């Protein structure tokens, strides 16, 4: 155990005495049985109203649960304390112990839950009190009332002891103390102090000296409110032990309050403040003691308080909520947690990057031509044993290989493998039918092997992309944790100071994020929120150097809660409309708008091959996968490649789906279009209609396909229109479809995207005379500049799925 440093006082007589006491503490105090015995003696001596003794049984019952191996030590201390009590009550204590032992065994035998133990303690204490009073006095209503009070006190004290004594013996539990636990500890300390009642030295009461030292110490540790609470509780419980001590409640409460108010000036000032409070009560409310004894007890208590090592006071400050030491300790604890989490996330990022490295396609050999492989295998299997091998593959080898490749080309063209390689060469082969069948069989096998290899490469690439994406996400999280450190708290303090200097009284300020473009700050201002909003917007824009808007404002007790966030330059609205093939109820298309935070918005449109329920499942699968991958923070191109690979890996018998993705950066207004087998999109800008298209196969056809992205700079007022191919089939004349779609988009008069989509779909359906040959979905997205007024703030639009 650590030895206390007594400083310069170590060489003086007082220092030698304190050193001796510290040596005794180091030898004896670590012994838990000694502490249990000491507490049991004090609680066995303690009385309430001069005749009730509920403390001993409650402590012994608690020790049976907390320290079963030392319950006999607690029992011995209880009996000794009962014998040394101002009113000895060993027989009554023995009766209570015996009755509790019987009830405890019975409760365990019948399987009574442990939650009923306080009730067992109360019954045992009350029953023992009734039995004891019956032996010596007639059972009057007063005796019954006192027995009930004693039982109730035992019930409450048992609960307090079970919850509080583990805190005294285990300092690791001190880090997260709540106010209720602190109050329970106050009660335990006060009950221990009441166990010293009746002990005096040279006419000075020990309990008075110790209570003053405890109150001064707690007031110095926690402040005026803390000291006053400790003083009132201590004085109240001491007054319950002896009615003439009720004045202690006022004296100790005032002393704790004044000592706590004086604590910023140092320990001597706190001691002086406590002495001042005690002197005031002693002068204006004199008790049964002489003033000199009262002041001498106060001086001795102050001396004990001043002898408490500073390290012990600092340890107490760290566990009292609200103190600077506690805040520093919590900050250090959270800093350690942040460092550990940051290290763990960084390790995860490195691990995922290392796992992705073996799947890097760099250095892989390109897949072999299945025709060459089939020709080689047929030559080995069929021609290898033929007696004309030297002629066909020796003298005419190139001509033979060219002829076989020509057959395979006709197989790729879905033509029957006719053997027309020239009369001269055909006359040379003695088994052409067998050669044709073998060639067709081997070529089919090679193509299947090639497709399987392509699927495997796609799976490897998908796994690599996902692992690299996870590594990037983990690294970003680690960087975010690094940013949310001392520098972030320093900037938060600077922001609070700047707001207060601007004349706004702020109850609290919480900087959730100070990352450029992702700022999020919550304030509780006491002023009228409507007046403070514009000032806060302008102030934070100047402090953070970017556009800041009010996202939310709501009344809270004492003011208004205002949430400030990074303001996007543009706002995106979208709407969609659908019609099923043949007027059905189930459309094979799916559409979703994804609000990816304040910086990005994505509009996804998918058309499942065919129509009906199966097509809807295909399109919904593509949309849901895109939604999950984009919401996780992956790039749009990576998301589309992942969806393509996942759809391709499901099997040859599955259908495919088109994917039309528009990814809008709300800060810059740039839009990225990724079209996977999708129909062209259009941008209406004034009277002009701009076509946006890209030639990419549908998702799931080619596992390793690369998809081209088209980037366009959008402007406020632009209308983006995305269509499925069913809209084009509504026009019977193919050469007029493009011009017809452009005209419809140009002529629609609607500002809201939902109204625009409804009108465009109505025009397309009207063109088909209400006889749709395919599902049709129209998705419309508009771009407008964000307003600066706080009233435009609204909750983020959630995703909608059709």
TrEMBL record:
Gene that this sequence comes from: spoIIE
Residue stretches making up the PPM-type phosphatase domain: 571-783
Cross-referenced InterPro entries: Bact_Sigma-Reg, PPM-type-like_dom_sf, PPM-type_phosphatase-like_dom, SpoII_E, SpoIIE_N
Organism: Hydrogenibacillus schlegelii
Chain segments annotated as transmembrane: 34-50, 86-103, 110-132, 144-170, 182-202, 214-239, 268-284
Protein's UniProt name: Stage II sporulation protein E
Keywords: Hydrolase, Membrane, Transmembrane, Transmembrane helix
Entry EC number(s): 3.1.3.16
Superkingdom to which the source organism belongs: Bacteria
UniProt GO MF annotations: protein serine/threonine phosphatase activity
Gene3D superfamilies registered for this protein in UniProt: PPM-type phosphatase domain (3.60.40.10)
């Amino acid at each position: 155990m650590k030895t206390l440093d007594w400083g310069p006082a170590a060489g003086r007589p007082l220092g030698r005495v304190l050193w001796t006491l510290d040596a005794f503490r180091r030898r004896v105090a670590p012994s838990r049985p000694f502490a249990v015995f000491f507490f049991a003696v004090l609680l066995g001596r303690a009385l309430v109203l001069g005749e009730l003794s509920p403390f001993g049984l409650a402590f012994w019952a608690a020790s049976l649960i907390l320290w079963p191996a030392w319950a006999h030590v607690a029992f011995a201390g209880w009996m000794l304390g009962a014998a040394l009590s101002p009113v000895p009550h060993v027989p009554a204590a023995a009766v209570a112990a015996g009755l509790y032992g019987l009830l405890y065994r019975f409760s365990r035998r019948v399987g009574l839950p442990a939650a009923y133990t306080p009730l067992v303690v109360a019954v045992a204490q009350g029953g023992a009190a009734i039995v004891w009073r019956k032996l010596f006095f007639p059972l009057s209503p007063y005796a019954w009332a006192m027995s009930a009070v004693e039982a109730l006190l035992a019930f409450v004290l048992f609960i307090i002891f079970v919850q509080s004594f583990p805190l005294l013996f285990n300092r690791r539990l001190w880090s997260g103390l709540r106010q209720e636990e602190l109050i329970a500890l106050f009660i335990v300390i006060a009950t221990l102090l009441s166990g010293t009642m009746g002990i005096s030295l040279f006419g000075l009461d020990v309990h008075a000296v110790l209570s003053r030292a405890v109150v001064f110490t707690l007031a110095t540790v926690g402040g005026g409110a803390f000291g006053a609470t400790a003083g009132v509780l201590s004085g109240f419980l001491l007054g319950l032990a002896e009615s003439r001590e009720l004045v202690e409640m006022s004296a100790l409460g005032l002393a704790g309050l004044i000592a706590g108010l004086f604590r910023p000036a140092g320990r001597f000032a706190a001691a002086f403040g406590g002495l001042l409070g005690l002197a005031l009560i002693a002068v204006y409310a004199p008790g049964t003691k002489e003033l000199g004894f009262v002041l001498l007890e106060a001086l001795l208590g102050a001396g004990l308080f001043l002898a408490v090592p500073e390290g012990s006071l600092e340890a107490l400050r760290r566990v009292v909520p609200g103190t600077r030491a506690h805040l520093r300790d919590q900050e250090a604890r959270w800093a350690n947690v942040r460092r550990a989490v940051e290290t763990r996330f960084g390790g995860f990022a490195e691990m995922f990057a290392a796992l992705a490295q073996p799947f890097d396609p760099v250095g892989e050999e390109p897949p072999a031509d299945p025709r060459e492989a089939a020709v080689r295998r047929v030559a080995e299997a069929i021609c290898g044993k033929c007696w004309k091998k030297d002629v066909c593959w020796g003298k005419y080898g190139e001509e033979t290989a060219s002829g076989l490749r020509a057959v395979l080309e006709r197989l790729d063209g879905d033509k029957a493998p006719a053997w027309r390689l020239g009369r001269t060469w055909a006359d040379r082969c003695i088994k052409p039918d067998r050669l044709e069948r073998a060639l067709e069989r081997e070529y089919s096998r090679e193509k299947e092997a090639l497709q399987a290899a392509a699927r495997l490469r796609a799976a490897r690439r998908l796994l690599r992309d996902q692992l690299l994406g996870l590594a990037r996400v983990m690294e970003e999280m680690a960087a975010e944790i690094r940013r949310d450190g001392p520098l972030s708290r320093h900037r938060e303090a600077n922001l609070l100071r700047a707001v207060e200097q601007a004349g706004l009284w702020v109850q609290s300020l919480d900087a959730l994020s100070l990352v450029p473009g992702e700022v999020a700050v919550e304030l509780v201002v006491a002023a009228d929120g409507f007046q403070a909003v514009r000032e806060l917007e302008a102030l934070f824009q100047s402090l953070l150097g970017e556009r800041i808007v009010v996202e939310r404002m709501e009344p809270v007790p004492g003011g208004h809660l205002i949430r400030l966030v990074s303001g996007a330059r543009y706002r995106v609205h979208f709407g969609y409309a659908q019609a099923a093939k043949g007027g059905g109820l189930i459309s094979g298309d799916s559409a979703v708008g994804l609000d990816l935070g304040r910086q990005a918005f994505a509009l996804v449109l998918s058309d499942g091959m065919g129509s009906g329920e199966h097509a809807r499942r295909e399109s919904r699968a593509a949309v849901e996968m895109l939604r999950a991958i984009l919401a996780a923070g992956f790039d749009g191109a990576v998301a589309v490649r992942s969806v393509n690979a996942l759809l391709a890996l499901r099997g040859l018998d599955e259908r495919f789906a088109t994917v039309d993705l528009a990814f809008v950066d709300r800060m810059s207004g740039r839009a990225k279009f990724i079209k996977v087998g999708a129909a062209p999109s259009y941008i209406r800008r004034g009277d002009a209609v701009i076509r946006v298209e890209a030639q990419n196969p549908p998702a799931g056809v080619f596992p390793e396909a690369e998809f081209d992205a088209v980037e366009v700079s959008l402007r406020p007022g632009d209308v983006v229109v995305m269509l499925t191919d069913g809209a084009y089939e509504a026009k019977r004349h193919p050469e007029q479809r493009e011009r017809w779609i452009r005209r419809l988009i140009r002529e629609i008069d609607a500002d809201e995207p939902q109204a625009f989509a409804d009108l465009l779909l109505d025009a397309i359906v009207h063109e088909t005379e209400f006889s749709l040959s395919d599902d049709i979905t129209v998705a419309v997205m508009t771009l407008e500049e964000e307003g600066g007024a706080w009233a435009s703030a609204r909750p983020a639009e959630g995703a909608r799925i059709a």
